[in-house]
Amino acid sequence: MPRIAVVPGDGIGHEVLAEGLRVLGVVAPDLDFEHFDLGAARYLRDGTTMPPETMLRWRDEFDAVYLGALGDPRVPSNVHARDILLGARFQLDLYVNFRPVRLLDPRYCPLKDKGPEHVDFVVFRENTEGLYTGIGGQFKRDTPEEVAVEQEMNTRKGVERIIRAAFEWADRHGKTKVCMSDKANAMRHGHDLWQRVFKSVAAEYPRIRASHLYVDVLTMQMVLAPEQFEVIVTNNLFGDIVTDLGAAIQGGIGLAASGNLNPGKSALFEPVHGSAPDIAGKGIANPLAAILTAGMMLGYLGRPQDEKRIQDAVQACLHAGNVTRELGGTRTTREVGDAVIAALR
Ligand code: NAD
Ligand code: IPM
Ligand code: MN
Fold this sequence. Notes:
binds 3-isopropylmalic acid, 19% strand
């Protein structure tokens, strides 16, 4: 029986995860859940962000972590989110941030004349290094001479494993194209490493067409001609940015799912969106990203039929217009969950 650690987290994390868990209750009633009280409220209450022993339990005792969102205006430093979310990515070595960009219903695409056949690719975001490690420092803080340095870390091992993961996934899923995106024209050291590693890994996959776009052009092309992409691989920060853009073209941030993975190890699944403090507590957040994320988790646990079942139910819900207000609907979070469950049955 797979064991799942559940972390609703902050803001709409609670509301959307509740619906994801209801859907899991229908599709995978055998899962064993343990809830973890982690997030801004806990931090404000007793100063705890992420107990080290909890991280070890996630690593050793659980198959996956299902997380809502982290981020709260009452914690401007965001220290708890860094310790929990980035902490899990780094300490569990979840080097693949897998973010599909798939339009399920043309009505919700903001691009002119684009449909599901044009928006269907996945982004492999490097998840353990880049500009996210916190390496750097501040000097002469709060003086006019202040200096702040944020260093981008790129290791050959780290770059190679995410690029290889992208090619392997493409190969296994019958895809023929992998596009790597960097900013090697301006970033001479780290992104030159990406260029060299990409060429050498690509040479091992002669069946797959390897291409490259600078990230500025990538963002433009994702809007103008998303149909050219099957698999995109990029670094941590660029992957963060382009997957919010990807979310927009697949129908909105309320529909984008993601998995933080290291094949064979326990993984962490979360919607791409954040805690949305502007709508938290109102019961109007779109739970579909969290529900699709639950489906992705089942796929990872070796249940692709259940993942497909959830995707089909979400698609039915979209087709029927059972959507929250940011998609032009009138349904509440709970009602969208009900609609997905009705479609499942
Ligand atoms: P956000 O994704 O929370 O919200 C951006 C906009 O999208 C807001 O207008 C919000 O209302 C809307 N939105 C997001 N999810 C939605 C949903 N499910 N349904 C309907 N509308 C939705 O991004 P933000 O405002 O920049 O961040 C808020 C907090 O969340 C910050 O503290 C940030 O650091 C954090 N954050 C956390 C995660 C995560 O835990 N994985 C991801 C992104 C941001
Ligand atoms: C995401 C989020 C996080 C990130 C934040 C909350 C640190 O935006 O998962 O996309 O930048 O990775
Ligand atoms: Mn993000």
